[in-house]
Amino acid sequence: MTQPAVIRRDHPAHSPLQTALELAAAGLPVLPLRRGKVPFGNCRACAGIACGGRPNMKDAGTCQCPSVCHAWAAATTDFAVITSTTWGPAWRQAVAVAYHPAGAGLTVVDLDNPAAVAWARQTLPATRTVPTTRGEHWIYLGAMRSVNGVREGVDLKSTMAYARWRGHGTGTMTALPAAVRALAEKSPTTVHVASRTVTVPALAEDGECRHRSPSYLERGIAMAEQRITAATSAVHATVYRAFLAVLSTHGRCGCLTEAHIARLFAAAQAKGESPRHCTDAWTNARAKLGL
Fold it and tell me: Distance (Å, rounded) from C-alpha 186 to C-alpha 259?
């Protein structure tokens, strides 16, 4: 593909919309980001991601939109769509621009800390690099499936994912190497319960589920684990619904413990979810149920 044009991000008059149009002209499908690097929902039903799912999944959460409206799936190079009245309000509120790597035939290796950058420099072939807030994006020519947490501080962003535009970077993009593709075949090396605080409902007075026996809870957790493990697509949506099912039954009775949550998070991370996305799904499920 044609190398993306240099964007002068430090120009005071360069708005997100102007940047988006230049990137689209260079062949990068773009989308607007609101504060927190979160995409806008492109329909009223999903404004603020009210559907409860991760915004870069086409069928996120409980969304029943009649057309594609979420992030990576809505990214486009069509000037008519980018400047339409539908997207107009989003661009006026946008704080950054993102793009869909696979839509341009690219893969982004997102290195989130100095240790991950050092590992990449020792392990991966040189390619175009773009500085980020905490690390670097290494961009390769070629698309592949996206996987979070392939190792500590390393995510792969390509199909069904978006990456924030942070500038042109330096170096020439090289072909996607086998070493990067191999990372997608490995399970995450570390399982974390959360990267932020996860709320566990307060215990009931007797410390047990008030309406069922402990064995009922065990079956519920096991079924949720099995449901997540069996997912072959829409993994985050499946994780969210599994969390929702567990919380709808046991979220108010006080029988859930950190150990139960760790089991659910471990099942999700084995399918490629990051600790942050697990926490987001758990928080969204609690909010959906008013917990």
Answer: 25
User: Would the pTM count as exceeding 0.90?
Assistant: no
In the sheet that 163-164 helps form, which strands lie side by side, from edge to edge? 38-39, 30-34, 96-99, 163-164
**Structural contact between residues 72 and 162, judged by C-beta atoms closer than 8 angstroms:** yes
- CA 102, CA 109: separation in Å to the nearest integer? 12
Instruction: Tell me how far the alpha carbon of residue 186 is from its chain's centroid.
Output: 18
Give the span between the Cα atoms of 47 and 90, in whole angstroms: 10
Q: Give the residue ranges of DSSP H helices in 11-150.
A: 16-25, 71-74, 79-82, 88-93, 114-123
Terminal alpha carbon distance of the chain: 48
Residue entry with tokens 């950190």: 258
- Yes or no: say if 111 and 153 are a contact pair by the CB < 8 Å rule: yes
Cα–Cα dist 29/93, whole Å: 19
Would you give the distance in Å from CA 49 to the centre of its chain?
A: 13
Segment 142-156, tens digit of pLDDT: 998 888 888 888 999
Distance in angstroms (rounded) separating the CA atoms of residues 204 and 218: 17
Q: DSSP class of residue 126?
A: P
Closest CA to 1 of 90, 77, 109, 112: 77
* Tens of pLDDT, residues 197-215: 455 554 444 444 555 566 7
